[in-house]
TrEMBL record:
SUPFAM superfamilies: Aldolase. InterPro entries: Aldolase_I_AS (IPR029768), Aldolase_TIM (IPR013785), FBA_I (IPR000741). Pathway: Carbohydrate degradation; glycolysis; D-glyceraldehyde 3-phosphate and glycerone phosphate from D-glucose: step 4/4. Its EC number is 4.1.2.13. It catalyses: beta-D-fructose 1,6-bisphosphate = D-glyceraldehyde 3-phosphate + dihydroxyacetone phosphate. Keywords: Glycolysis, Lyase. One of its GO terms (molecular function) is fructose-bisphosphate aldolase activity. This is Fructose-bisphosphate aldolase.
Amino acid sequence: MHEKALIDTAKALVADGKGILAADESTGTIKKRLDGIGVESTEATRQAYRNLLFTTEGSEDFISGVILFEETLFQKADDGTLFSKLLADKGVIPGIKVDKGAKPLAGSPEEMITEGLDGLRDRLKEYADAGARFAKWRAVIDITDERPTDYCIGVNANALARYAALCQEAGIVPIVEPEVLMDGENTLERCEQVTDRVLDAVFTELKQQQILLEGMLLKPNMVISGKKCGQQADVAQVADATLRCLRRRVPAAVPGIVFLSGGQSDEVATAHLNAMNKRGPHAWKLSFSYGRALQAPALDAWRGKPENIEAAQKAYFKRARNNSAAARGEYSADMESAA
């Protein structure tokens, strides 16, 4: 019933040179971000911070959509306009994080399962009525020598597909996010092995649950060395391993792959995306759905002070512009020093 709308929205989210701002930090996560700059996390400070991002003039040239947290979807800009309407009026598609976070997996408590399927059908109707046209659900997969187990991969893949089916039923494009974490000691090769297993399981479940692949987006990790690995892969190695993995597992029917940054520094995340696009053309658009890698410089510049809003917006604009260039394969490190 919603087939055309789903396909059109998915394509619009990966329009040439455009990507997604992930501004969907939960209340706990945004508190950590604000604590880091010495700002108390209140509804007012969270609104002020999101307001400065969403009202950055010209950012809509690079940002196709914004993932909102539930609180933010119903908040208003300083001028009284609902954030969802403010974004839509600029041609930016509002989206919504719908999962309820990762909890210990029964039977394998060192691993995680994402919760939030109960009541999701009703919540999706409410979100659609509030202007959301796409959604996001994140599954968290940890890497050690023994993990992840097939059990953990299987139940998370099943939940991602169930979420995607409910989204498409509601006319909302699902962003499917299976995140293989980069916090461990694992090598690039181990990350590629695990990411391959995860993507294989996810697309098997999506097929079984009759997901319209043309009406969804994939938000995967890049294939990367763990943060604690003594031998860090370079930009070219990350690009080659990531593309090798995606070509094996992601059907060409999927219109776009919007990477998460996963704790990479902002400039490194941009360089990795650029390197992959330089190796194109690909079967799918390769773009970004970054949180920290788009926001960190803006947050640092703002520090909760009204007089710093302009500097913070310039910092956000620069990261959006540079990632837009990377989504075209046209980024260079010289752009970091350019005004």
